[in-house]
Amino acid sequence: MATEPEAEPTKKKLPIVKILLGVVGAIVMLAVGAGAALLYTKLTKPAEENPLAIVIEKKADDGGKSDAPKGEAGEKAKGADTSSGAKPVPSREQYVTSYFEFPGNFTTNMKGSRRFVQTAIGLATQYDKRVIENVQRHEVAIRSEVLAVLAEQTEADLVGVDNRRRIQGLIKDAINRVLLERTDFGGIENVYITALVMQ
To answer: Nearest-CA neighbor of 121 among 172, 86, 48, 87?
Structure first.
């Protein structure tokens, strides 16, 4: 009968994966701690050294009701550089302008000509996002009105800066008219011709 060879005593191997995970975990914890300490020191600087603190201090001082900052921190927030004799930039309430550019071009024949005009049009509003959503929702009707405005123009009507500004005003009025009919509010404040080709 053959005897089976005796099994060699097994040595316990160190779980290398566990050791690596422990080392990586320790490095991550050190990095997080260092980042938190750095953030804490930046936020706890005196107001004159930390611009964020100046803004927060200004809001806390006047409750956001006045544009005139108070105290020394307020002077720095205004950006007044009295040593150079420069005027500070006036602060006033500003609204965000939203832009929208119609996808594709507007192409139509010109009045009294065999040539046609191709243009790209964008618009702007400072009202909320509903105005742009309304433009997108009623794009077919708006495109029709814009093409009608362009089709009424002659070649001479499209030449020169003043003529283009006049046409931008006509297009703006046409878009607002469509929006008023369909949503009871226009809201388009500017129209831009971003490309114009006559052929």
So the answer is: 172
Q: Where does residue 131 rank: exposed (0-12), middle (13-18), buried (19+ CB within 10 A)?
A: buried
Domain of 32 in residue numbering reads as 16-78
Helix (H, G, I), strand (E, B) or coil at 8: coil
What are the structure tokens assigned to 112, written together? Answer: 């009294």
Among residues 50, 78, 106, the one where a domain terminates is 78
- pTM > 0.90: yes or no: no
- Is residue 70 within 8 A of residue 47, CB to CB? The reply is no
Amino acid at 52: L
Show the tokens assigned to 93: 């309430």
Say if residue 69's pLDDT is above 50.
no
Selection from 33, 36, 21, 76 nearest residue 53 by Cα = 76
